[in-house]
Amino acid sequence: MIEQTEITLQARPRGFHLVTDEVLAGAPDLADVEAGLLHLWIRHTSASLTVNENASPDVRRDFESWANDAVREDASYWTHTLEGPDDMPAHIKASLMGPSLTLPVSGGSLALGTWQGIYLCEHRDDGGARGLVATLMS
Amino acid sequence: MIEQTEITLQARPRGFHLVTDEVLAGAPDLADVEAGLLHLWIRHTSASLTVNENASPDVRRDFESWANDAVREDASYWTHTLEGPDDMPAHIKASLMGPSLTLPVSGGSLALGTWQGIYLCEHRDDGGARGLVATLMS
Amino acid sequence: MIEQTEITLQARPRGFHLVTDEVLAGAPDLADVEAGLLHLWIRHTSASLTVNENASPDVRRDFESWANDAVREDASYWTHTLEGPDDMPAHIKASLMGPSLTLPVSGGSLALGTWQGIYLCEHRDDGGARGLVATLMS
Question: Which residues in A lie closer than 8 A to residue B138 (C-beta atoms)?
Fold first, then answer.
């Protein structure tokens, strides 16, 4: 069985944000799913999705620091500069983290580890609301 | 329902290439799919797949510049050097971008955002044609 | 059809490890699958999964060298330092390589390329055994 919904995540500042609850509120209902997969797709090229530690805000802050160091706004080789200094680094960061997640579902809920949560990685200074497509296969 | 095809992408020079149309031409037909997932797998360890901005060639050029800066051919720590200076960096870049994409299908076509396109990331100087496996679940 | 199993990978030292055989031994049986997808999920935020070259141990050693260079333990910006110098870099590396793989299955086995194998990327000094969820859709 396949169910599909669209989710709009509220606008957030640049950085890494824990959005597990907001995603689950908009995704197809998992309660009756014995075993399956929940696929999430972000319909943007300057924001991304990953799963990481769900407890400490300093982990998410350190993700942002590392990303800014690994993909520098002041790198001399950028040629796509028309949309501002945060734009081209946002494209790179988006592909590094990736545009989608495929999450296991088991016994009516996500089969994540204890410390795992879903991150929205907002790579633009002013990215606005972000649209996802959620597809449940069960 | 599951359909599977093999796709051969023509040889391309090292760099990031927009291949959405070539992929769709070889993938299972999406026209009758109300909701589903299209999975793409690249059968190589020195080329990869990602989704990013589909309009400006300079974005794809900047991807190549960043990748060459982040994974340097002249790094002192490489030990796997037998296959040339572009080989080991190609393996790293391939895992950074990833070997597969799982794309949402909705109403008979890919449910991508307006600016999203499929990239073949060719990390070798002379990688040759690249083989994909496309699997449609609907 | 959907089948799901849990796999426990034995503890390994920090580094990149070829685990194709250990994963297949614990995953749902692929022998009767004409076409499908095998999804693997790692239930941790400091270890990850990727696919890369399955022949040369020096490739896997070079992955570890690059990762340690790209995500430095001595970076000045880490604030999440309570769990040791290898912890925060492990979180970043885990998201770079990614928490899951979706692998094509064809004619009763994984439809990987000749040189592709599954890596467990162990980013902690002492990560212990690692748990996976394997989901087969066929």
Answer: 2
